[in-house]
Amino acid sequence: TRDEGPPGARGSRAVSRSDAGRYTCRATNKHGSALRSIYVSVEYEPSIGEAGCPARRLWVEGMAAELGCNASGNPPPHVACAKLGDPHAPSASPNVTRAHAGTYQCRATNAHGSALRNVTITVEYSPAAVSLRVVPSANVSRGASFSVECRAEGLPAPTFGWALPPAPNLRFGADNRSVAVAQAAAINRGVYTCTASNRHGQRAGSVVVRVDESWLALLVSLGVLGAVTVLALAAAGGYYLKTAA
């Protein structure tokens, strides 16, 4: 009998994993009986399923870099995972970095064979490398148009916010990555700060925009010069008229 169940049928068949268990043999004759129990273990090759080893993982930069996969098998299999094309990751770093993203192959091995399973790891991280660019230049002539563009790395893709000199001639891009200024004036000069944010954090960058009004000074100077010239001509004319008289 098996596990104190009903007597089993005699004969032989292919062994399956369900045959594992405790069996009791009872020998009986007219003088009595004898019992002996034995535990039967069924060995089999490894297998790796989704439950013990999900095919897709989401890691966050900075967390402990641990890629574990559970496999079934008897004897219990040894499982080792390595990044395809880079056998030294993820053990090369104790904490997750963006370099850990990629596909890994996990191999479960015992005396009866092996099983393989690929695992894809995505690494999310807070915004980084925020940079601003002023097109065509951060030195703008009065009346000219310019735009400030903001770029940042991050996963999930970051959203963007701005702190800048308030003005009525501003127009933000559809994704808020840029701000355009038409017919720049003195009110548009100052610091333009872009902040990139996602669920893991935020980071900011800034650039200084200067509005050059030197041409106004030139016009003023020319105006003054013109006035002086007019006065000089008037004085000369008066002197001439006086002399003629």
TrEMBL record:
GO terms for cellular component: plasma membrane. Residues 1-21 are annotated as: Disordered. InterPro entries: ICAM_VCAM, Ig-like_dom, Ig-like_dom_sf, Ig-like_fold, Ig_I-set, Ig_sub, Ig_sub2. GO terms for molecular function: integrin binding. One of its GO terms (biological process) is cell adhesion. The chain crosses the membrane at residues 215-241. The keyword Lyase does not apply. Residues 46-122, 127-210 form the Ig-like domain. Keywords: Membrane, Transmembrane, Transmembrane helix. This is ICAM5 protein. It comes from Anseranas semipalmata.
